[in-house]
Structure formats: C-alpha cells, structure tokens
Amino acid sequence: MAYNEKIAARIRASLKGTKNLEEKKMFGGIAFLINGKMCVGVNKDHLMVRCLPELTEELLSKEGAKPFNLSGKSMKGWLLVDEKGTKNKKDFDWWMQKVLKETGKLHQKNPVSKINSSCFFFIAFLQWVLNKAINIFP
C-alpha cells in the first residue's frame, strides 16, 4: 500500500465542491491541489499538510503532528499528521480548515514581489545588451 486510501477518501469528502480541485499521485502518495497548488495529501498513513512556513513550529505542538522529511531534512511549511491527530471528525476537520485557510494565504500574489521579479529580469536584460554592445564597439 503506497498510501492510506481511507485518509484520501476523507480528504475528498472534506474538499468536495472546492473549485479547481485536482488530485495527483506523487512521491508514492496522493496530493490534492487547489488552483494548481498542492495543499494537502496522503503520505503512507499520514495526512500531509501544507501551511505557512512561519506556522510550522506552532502546528508541530498539535497532537499527532510531526515534521515532513522528504530527503533527510525537515521542510518548513509541511507537516505530517498521524492518526492521533486525525482520529475523530473534529480533529480531522480542524486540519482541513487550516489547510484551506493557509492555502489561500500561500497563493496570494504579492504585487511588490512581482515588480521586483520584473525589475530583476529587466536589469539582467540590460546587462546582457551592454555586454553585447561592449563586444561590438570596443
């Protein structure tokens, strides 16, 4: 068994009716994406939860939560929650509401970062043009 299908079914039921919801099998488990962004999934027998990186430590204090460790290093913004943390509907629903709330925050576009990104590429382009000009006109 690559992942717990019962947990996947609970996620499907919880996210039923969510716009732009997509399921993808990856990393030996299953991931649920909203608007093309991964927000929750199942890894073996654990609920895999995405959150704001700055909330990772706080959420690790919840029962059943542990760091998500894909390559030997804990990843901030990702948690695994075992059955102790999702044993009843109330606890499972709490995590799912947290996922939906945090996913909305994670994927909001920051207009300043978009401008900074555009400026970076513009400056890189200008440097390239100047280098070409220097080589043409020594």
Question: Overall pLDDT, averaged?
Answer: 83
Provide the low-confidence segments as ranges: none
> Order of SSEs, N→C?
HEEEEHEEHHH
CATH class of the largest domain equals Alpha Beta
Number of helices: 5
- Beta-strand proportion: 25-35%
Apparent shape: elongated
CATH architecture of the largest domain: Alpha-Beta Complex
Helix content: 40-55%
Biggest β-sheet strands, sense, barrel: 6 strands, antiparallel
CATH topology of the largest domain: Aspartate Aminotransferase, domain 1
Using the CA coordinates, give the radius of gyration.
20 Å
How many separate structural domains?
2
Kindly report the spatial arrangement of strands forming the biggest sheet.
1-2-3-4-6-5
Distance between the termini: 66 Å
Global structural class: alpha+beta
Task: Summarize the structure in short.
The chain has 138 residues and is an alpha+beta fold. The chain folds into 2 domains: 5-107, Alpha-Beta Complex (Aspartate Aminotransferase, domain 1); 110-138. The protein has helices at residues 5-15, 56-59, 83-86, 89-106, 111-136, and strands spanning 21-26, 29-34, 37-43, 46-50, 65-69, 74-81.
